[in-house]
């Protein structure tokens, strides 16, 4: 075992390569949370009055709520008064009109992260909205998308340009009363992405948002809203990174998906926020509410690869309201060092013949604690509802933990629900088998982990799948089960 | 719960407490401590995670009256002859409304050194052992039992001894008034390499909304082997609350079988502590509910030592508006390497209005383990029925065959042949007679 322990130590100390800081002049609010802060953010974004009122209502509700403690994670309480709720790169004059006018330092940052924003440099077929701290700094391929009738822009822009759509859908899937962090987000959200796919349209390219936290002592509170009109289709990806810092930073996002009749939304996430060091110092608190609603024959598919964040607290959910609608959840969650993840999904079956699939793969290494928490709920009227859940955990090292907390509630006799879970470690015999065939132990581990996660990788868009696979290989460097 | 019910209940409880202190004066400190704990916590509500799906309202909304005397005089031996397992050669300890009935009990010659008696007769010897295993549990119902228990079984099997025949604990409720409550307490100690079979039956003779609150502590020392079969077949108006606390020693084997057929509301808390290596622990259960019954099994299996196996198998059949609740939690501590834990909960919903809430949980802090869990909820498999019909069985026979298989999975795990046969018949006749199989 001692040889194993050494390699595990090595693995635990592997570096986070997105931990640099961009030295850029930014405009930040002083830390603190009160109604003036909310009014400031709203005024800064030149928001209509209804939105400000909505924010204030959310804030008043938030003040009445208590921090939830049911998740299987440990962290000191967050002091909301120590966080700055707005930070954006300083603009010259009216701000950039197009990407060419964006501060080259920012473009360089994204270049370094592997997300070049120059359209010619991009792989054709993916449009990117880049969010830097509290602001979106630019969106690529906007014109191309506009030709197809697709709206893809930052939330702030959508509030200005398409207020009727924002007003109609904002908060309908995740109301501000939903939970503690959704209330906070509704009060102070700064930016995020907005997507609207018109009726009968198949979005001509992949849409993607890249979130970057840069400034210290700030929280990122983005809000994403995706609306797929009848018979439309969209695939959306998001990626996230943050600098290495000793203090914790809060990221509390809300994502709402609306899939109208016969439409399909595919939402993929590769989350790689700074995870903190092996002692659990620093790193992002990732407290996110993601939920989608499916109307008749619609389909929402969540795919997530969670490798970052000190604490992850996230349950992308689907409300299967329409008959024959489909919800899917494919997840890989890796916890290493002192990371803690409490993640899973909720599938709420309301309509008839609704189907859901849950595939969750948890990998724990180092001192990581990984929990799957999920709910499958079948209502009285959801006849012939069908669910299949599989939650597998892989343990690497003897100081980590893997936990499963599924909730299954059925009120209909024709429903069929199956749940399976296994927990195992990479067996010595498996490694031996690979060694015998000439594979290095490290390659063998990577291969076994990749095999373990295959069902989820298959669901990711191709470019992302390659990236996610690499990310797992890097994160597992030097580990031997 | 509204604040008024708390006050009202507290009055009930205070009055009842004055009466109970007459029983076993040496128990007074335990009773007082239990009452104090209960005063602080009150009844659990559905806001608490452990009680989320099971509301104790049917229990808290009726008055609280303890039964200081039993209805023994009204009973005769004939009643005992009709209950399950009465035709087997067993030793019987009979408790009526929580009070020991010397007259109806029957203890033959157990081997020298083996104790099979009622707890109250041994209060002076064992008072410091009561609450050793259940004491740390915050469940308010245990506090309530600490305060109000009247009697129960005391079984002590010394090292290298075996029970010569199964011991049948019969708990009869004769309550005629709503709210009458009986609190029983069982203590089972199996020393190293001891063996035995214990049957526990809970039956009501009346139809009142009366409650039974039973706490059982079982200590199994190294190498002991115990089979414990519990049949809860109370009237559909009654409330059955139970908790079992077990501590298992090295290479101990414990098989606990729970059959929850009766009661308006039944709740079984099972708390198993696998303290030493090499333990094999099985929790096996079947619940069949109809009407507005609710059957709840809530278990925590704590793997605190390496090389232990634990298996939990619970099947449920639900009719009408009934509800089945299952909470299974396997906790594998960092030192519990080589754990092999398995947990399944299968539910057959046979009506439009029945509900199932299941939470099979794994909490694992060790890496070299094999842990699986599974849960299914559904109706009878149409393909399986078709398969059987294609082979000449009519629909009813096909359904019966599948149901028999479903209940048989659980019943077959009982090791004691005669008891298994009897339970098999009992479950089956219940399905045929009382549940509409068409």
Low-confidence stretches of chain B: 1-7
Give the biggest beta sheet of chain A. 10 strands, mixed
Order of helices and strands of chain B: HHHEHEEEHHEEEEEEEEEEEEEEEEHHH
Shape, principal axes of CA atoms of chain A: globular
User: Which sheet architecture does the biggest sheet of chain B show?
Assistant: 10 strands, mixed
Strand-pairing-aware structural class of chain A: alpha/beta
**Count of separate DSSP helical elements of chain B:** 9
Structural class of chain B: alpha/beta
Number of domains of chain A: 2
Span of the ends, CA to CA of chain B: 40 Å
Helix fraction bin of chain B? 10-25%
Total discrete domains of chain B: 2
Please compute the radius of gyration of chain B using only Cα atoms. 21 Å
Proportion in β-strands of chain A: 25-35%
Distance between the termini of chain A: 10 Å
Structural notes for this entry:
- The complex is a heterodimer of chains A (481) and B (438).
- Chain A is an alpha/beta fold and 481 residues long.
- Chain A folds into 2 domains: 2-314, no CATH class; 429-481, no CATH class.
- Helix content of chain A is 24%, strand content 34%.
- In chain A, the strands form 3 sheets. Chain A has a 10-stranded mixed sheet, with helices on one face. Chain A has a 6-stranded parallel β-barrel with strand order 13-15-18-21-19-16. In chain A, strands 1-2 form a two-stranded antiparallel ribbon.
- Mean pLDDT of chain A is 84; it is low at 1-13.
- Chain B is globular and about 65 Å long.
- Chain B is 22% helix and 37% strand.
- Chain B has 2 domains: 3-276, no CATH class; 382-438, no CATH class.
- Chain B has helices at residues 3-20, 28-41, 57-60, 77-82, 123-126, 140-148, 382-390, 395-411, 417-433, and strands spanning 65-66, 91-96, 99-100, 115-118, 153-157, 167-173, 180-190, 195-204, 211-220, 225-233, 239-248, 253-260, 265-274, 280-289, 294-303, 309-318, 323-332, 340-349, 355-364, 370-378.
- In chain B, the strands form 2 sheets. In chain B, strands 1, 4, 5, 7, 9, 11, 13, 15, 17 and 19 form a 10-stranded mixed sheet that branches. A 10-stranded mixed sheet of chain B has the order 3-2-6-8-10-12-14-16-18-20, covered by helices on one side.
- Residues 1-7 of chain B have low confidence and may be disordered.
- With 438 residues, chain B is of the alpha/beta class.
- β24 (416-425) of chain A pairs antiparallel with β20 of chain B.
């Amino acid at each position: 075992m001692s040889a194993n322990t050494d390699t595990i130590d090595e693995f635990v100390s592997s570096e986070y390569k997105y931990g640099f800081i961009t030295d850029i002049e930014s405009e930040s609010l002083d830390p603190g949370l009160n109604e003036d802060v909310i009014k400031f953010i709203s005024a800064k974004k030149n928001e209509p009055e209804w939105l400000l009122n909505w924010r204030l209502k959310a804030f008043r509700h938030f003040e009445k709520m208590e921090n939830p403690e049911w998740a299987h994670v440990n962290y000191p309480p967050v002091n909301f008064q120590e966080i700055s709720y707005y930070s954006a790169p300083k603009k010259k004059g009216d701000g950039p009109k197009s990407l060419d006018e964006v501060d080259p330092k920012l473009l360089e940052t994204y270049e370094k992260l592997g997300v070049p924003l120059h359209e010619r440099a991009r792989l054709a077929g993916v449009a990117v909205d880049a969010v830097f701290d509290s602001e979106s700094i630019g969106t690529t391929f906007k014109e191309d998308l506009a030709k197809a009738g697709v709206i893809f822009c930052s939330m702030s822009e959508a509030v200005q340009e398409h207020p009727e759509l924002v007003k109609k859908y904002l908060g309908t899937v995740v109301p501000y009363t939903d939970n503690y962090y959704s209330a906070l987000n509704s009060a102070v959200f700064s930016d995020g992405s907005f997507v609207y796919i018109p009726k009968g349209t198949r979005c001509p390219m992949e849409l993607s948002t890249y979130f970057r936290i840069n400034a210290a002592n700030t929280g990122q509170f983005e809000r994403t809203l995706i609306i797929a009109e009848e018979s439309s289709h969209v695939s959306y990806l998001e990626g996230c990174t943050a600098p290495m810092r000793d203090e914790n930073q809060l990221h509390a996002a809300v994502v709402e998906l609306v899939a109208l009749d016969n439409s399909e939304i595919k939402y993929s996430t590769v989350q790689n926020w700074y995870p903190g060091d092996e002692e659990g110092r620093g790193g992002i608190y990732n407290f996110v509410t993601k939920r989608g609603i499916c109307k008749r024959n619609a389909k929402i598919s969540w795919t997530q690869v969670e490798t970052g964040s000190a604490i992850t607290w996230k349950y992308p959910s689907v409300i299967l309201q329409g008959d024959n609608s489909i919800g899917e959840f494919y997840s890989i969650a890796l916890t290493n060092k002192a990371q803690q993840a409490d993640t899973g999904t909720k599938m709420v079956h309301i309509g008839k013949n609704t189907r859901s699939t849950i595939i969750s793969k948890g990998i724990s290494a180092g001192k990581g604690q990984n929990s799957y928490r999920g709910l499958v709920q079948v209502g009285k009227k959801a006849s012939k509802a069908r669910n299949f859940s599989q939650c597998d955990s892989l343990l690497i090292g003897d100081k980590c933990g893997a936990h499963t907390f599924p909730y299954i509630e059925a009120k209909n006799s024709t429903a069929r629900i199956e749940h399976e879970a296994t927990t195992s470690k990479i067996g010595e015999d498996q490694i031996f088998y690979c060694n015998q065939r000439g594979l290095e132990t490290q390659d063998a581990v990577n291969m076994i982990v990749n095999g373990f996660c295959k069902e989820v990788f298959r669901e990711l868009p191709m470019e992302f799948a390659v990236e996610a696979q690499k990310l797992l290989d890097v994160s597992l460097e030097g580990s031997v089960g | 719960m509204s604040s008024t019910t708390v006050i009202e209940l507290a009055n009930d409880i205070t009055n009842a407490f004055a009466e109970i202190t007459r029983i076993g004066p040496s128990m007074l400190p335990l009773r007082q401590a239990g009452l104090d704990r209960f005063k602080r916590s009150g009844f659990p509500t559905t806001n608490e995670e452990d009680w989320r799906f099971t509301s104790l309202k049917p229990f808290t909304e009726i008055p609280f009256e303890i039964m200081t005397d039993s209805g023994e005089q009204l009973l005769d031996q004939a009643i005992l002859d009709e209950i399950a397992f009465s035709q087997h050669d067993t030793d019987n300890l009979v408790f009526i409304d929580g009070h020991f009935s010397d007259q109806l009990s029957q203890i033959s010659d157990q081997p020298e050194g083996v104790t099979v008696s009622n707890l109250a007769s041994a209060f002076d010897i064992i008072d410091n052992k009561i609450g050793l295993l259940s004491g740390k549990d915050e469940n308010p119902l245990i506090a309530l039992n600490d305060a109000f228990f009247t009697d129960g079984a005391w079984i002590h099997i010394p090292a290298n001894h075996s029970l010569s025949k199964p011991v049948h604990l019969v708990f009869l409720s004769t309550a005629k008034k709503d709210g009458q409550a009986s609190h029983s307490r069982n203590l089972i100690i199996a020393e190293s390499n001891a063996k035995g079979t214990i049957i526990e039956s809970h039956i009501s003779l009346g139809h009142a909304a009366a409650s039974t609150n039973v706490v059982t502590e079982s200590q199994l020392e190294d190498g002991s082997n115990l089979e414990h079969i519990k049949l809860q077949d109370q009237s559909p108006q009654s409330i059955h609350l139970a908790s079992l606390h077990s501590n298992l020693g090295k290479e101990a084997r414990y098989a606990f079988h729970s059959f929850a057929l009766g009661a308006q509301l039944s709740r079984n808390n099972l708390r198993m502590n696998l303290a030493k290596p090499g333990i094999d622990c099985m929790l096996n259960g079947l619940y069949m509910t109809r009407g507005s019954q609710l059957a709840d099994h809530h278990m925590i299996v704590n793997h605190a030592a390496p090389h232990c196996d634990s298996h939990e198998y619970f099947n449920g059949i639900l009719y009408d508006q009934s509800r089945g609740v299952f909470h299974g939690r396997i906790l594998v501590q960092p030192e519990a390497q080589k754990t092999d834990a398995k947990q399944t909960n299968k539910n057959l919903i046979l009506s439009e209005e029945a509900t199932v809430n299941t939470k099979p949980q794994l909490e694992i802090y060790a890496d070299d383990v094999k842990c699986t869990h599974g849960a299914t909820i559904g109706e009878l498999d149409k393909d399986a029925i078709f398969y059987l019909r294609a082979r000449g069985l009519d629909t009813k026979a096909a359904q019966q065959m599948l149901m028999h298989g479903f209940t048989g999975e659980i019943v077959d795990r009982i090791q004691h042949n005669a008891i298994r046969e009897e339970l098999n018949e009992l479950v089956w006749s219940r399905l045929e007679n009382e549940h509409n199989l068409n």
